[in-house]
Amino acid sequence: MSNVTMTVNGKEVSGEIEGRTLLVEFLREGLGLTGTHVGCDTSQCGACVVHVDGHAVKACTMFAADAEGAEVKTIEGMANADGSLGTIQQAFQDYHGLQCGFCTPGMVMIAADLLAKNPSPTEHEIRDYLEGNICRCTGYHNIVKAIQAAAGQQVQPVAAE
To answer: Domain 2-78: what homologous superfamily?
Structure first.
């Protein structure tokens, strides 16, 4: 057992971990940040994406010990300071970029990573960037629209049902 200290969503946190503890386990079980999901255990689905020192990382592929001293941001850290939805989260709601919602935290986190690198991506660039994230419900159309809207692009509104 060893101790690990990192900054998660702007707060310094510490915990005792085994050397084999994955970052996703530390976040969910050690810190109670259950918005980061475990979907596949093989790093295929992207439901566990978080940001480590400003870069998107699949938290199921990283040991918690490797995040020692790092800045980690989870889906819980994407909201505005007043608790309202952040820009990308609001776009996902407005453009119905979700259905069951299981993949949504990872999709929001990978979208934030894309928009930090490319503030005005094309539809093709968005679809390409989402390649490591799987959604089994939506067909990705509204996810792409939500990311375009978050980037400030003109997007057709979602039709009312």
So the answer is: Beta-grasp domain (3.10.20.30)
